[in-house]
Amino acid sequence: MNLKENYIMMKFNTKFDRTNLKTLRNEMQELLEKYGVKANLEIEVGNMSFSEAEVSIKIKAKIKGAKTRADSMTEMMVKSSGLKMVASNGDTIVEYNSRARKMPWIYKCGTTGKMYKCSEDNATRRFAA
Questions:
Q1: Cβ proximity of 78 and 84 under 8 Å
Q2: Which SS3 state, helix, strand or coil, does residue 26 take?
Q3: Domain extents for the chain?
Q4: Residue 83's CB: how many other CB atoms inside 10 A?
C-alpha cells in the first residue's frame, strides 16, 4: 500500500463532509477522464447527496461527438427563435432549458468562459441573426 492509498483510507474513516467529498469528486473526475479517453466517452461527475454514512453520486457519460437530446432541442429553439449560436462578442448559446420559464437560455461568455442564464428578450438582443 502506497502513501496515497493510505491517505484516502484515513480520509473517509469517520464520516462524509463537503471537504472530503470535494476531494473525492476531483479524484473520480480525473480517473473517469482517463477512462473516457480510452473508451471515446465524455464522462462527468455530477451532484452528490450525502449523509454521515453514505453518498449518492450522479455520473453522466456521453459518446464524444454524439448529439444529445438537449443539443437537438437547443438547435431547434435557436432556429425557431431566429437566433445565432455565436454572438458577435464571442458569447455562445450552450443550452435551452424548456422548464425554466423566466430564463430558459444558458450561454457561455466569450471573454471569461463563465456560464449565464438569460430571458427570451435578453437572448434576442444578444444573439439576434
A1: yes
A2: helix
A3: 3-63, 69-127
A4: 19
- Could you tell me whether strands 115-118 and 105-108 are parallel, antiparallel, or unpaired per DSSP bridges? antiparallel
Beta bridge partners of 63: 41
Query: Which 3 state secondary structure label does DSSP give 112?
Result: coil
* pLDDT per position as a tens digit, 63-114: 998 998 989 999 999 999 999 999 999 999 999 999 999 999 999 999 999 9
Nearest-Å Rg of the Cα atoms of the chain is 20
CB half-sphere exposure, 10, CA atoms < 13 A:
7
Cell of residue 80, nine digits: 425557431
Residue located via cell numbers 492509498: 5
- Region of residue 65 (phi > 0: left; psi between -120 and 50: alpha; otherwise: beta): left
Identity of the residue numbered 73: M
The verdict on pTM exceeding 0.70 is: no
CB 85 within 8 A of CB 128: no
